[in-house]
Specification:
By secondary structure, this protein is mainly beta. The chain has 1 helix and 12 strands. Strands 1-2-3-4-5-6-7-8-9-10-11-12 form a 12-stranded antiparallel beta barrel. The protein is globular. The protein starts with a helix and ends with a strand.
């Protein structure tokens, strides 16, 4: 799938429109781990994901660029839904030809939190995803539990994940267990500094893919935030470098 220049030219207009609004964005301190928050009732937020991954640090590395566009809306004060489109491009010596930027999947996500933040010893929320892979009869279903706790200016979040793939192009039952977890500290009103880890246990629990790295979040205004995580692979089955940035804009 080719991104037309007219679409790229429209992006700055969308950014200006978002910044000009009066709504407040729901800031994220991590790029893989979700915290205990949802988009406010009646508010809409655009999130732009940018991923850069390398299989190794050498010249023979396969490099992957990922782009995700997500539009989320608050249905109630505790319930949000979001629609995400994913794109990807790959290149490297092991790839016979550059795989141009193309649509990979479309995902519907919903999240619900059970109480106000800090009402109990642990803040609890649940999240579900359903994605359709483009060009294949593969549907990915995912369930997540979000556990968070504020400790003064610090926040700890843990997120166990279960994922299953179904469809006529899936052989057998492909079940994966995963996790994401992080800790962040509010250094100032604009900056949060922390670290997170994420990964998957696959192939009937025989293979673990794990990454970890620092996470930095910057919120220059109430309507705009930017968060970046620079992760490194902790085992031989994981990409050596995994950098993700997210820009959040309240519309």
């Amino acid at each position: 799938m080719t991104i037309r220049p007219s679409l790229l030219a429209a992006l700055p207009l969308a950014l200006l429109a978002a910044v000009a609004g009066d709504a407040a964005a729901d800031r994220r301190a991590f790029t893989h781990t979700y915290e205990y928050l949802t988009i406010a009732d009646g508010e809409t937020e655009l999130q732009l994901y940018s991923d850069q991954r390398r299989t190794t640090f050498g010249d023979d590395a396969v490099e992957t660029f990922g782009l995700r566009l997500e539009l989320g809306h608050g249905i109630t004060e505790r319930w949000e839904v979001a629609l995400r489109h994913g794109f990807e491009q790959t290149s490297g010596p092991a790839v016979t030809d550059v795989v141009r930027l193309h649509l990979t999947d479309v995902e519907l996500r919903t999240r619900y939190r059970f109480a106000d933040r800090g009402d109990g010893p642990l803040d609890l929320a649940v999240q579900a995803r359903a994605a359709k892979l483009f060009g294949d009869s593969v549907y990915v279903l995912e369930g997540e539990v979000i556990l968070a706790r504020d400790l003064g200016l610090a926040t700890i979040a843990v997120q166990p994940i279960v994922r299953v793939a179904v469809g006529s192009d899936v052989v057998g039952t492909d079940v994966e267990l995963g996790w994401a977890a992080g800790v962040t500290y509010e250094a100032s009103a604009a900056w949060k500094l922390g670290a997170e880890t994420w990964g998957w246990v696959v192939d009937e629990l025989d293979v673990v893919e794990a990454s970890a790295g620092p996470a930095v979040s910057w919120q220059p205004t109430s309507r705009l935030w930017v968060t970046v995580t620079a992760g490194v692979g902790l085992d031989d089955d994981t990409d050596r470098l995994d950098v993700r940035g997210i820009v959040g804009l309240a519309l």
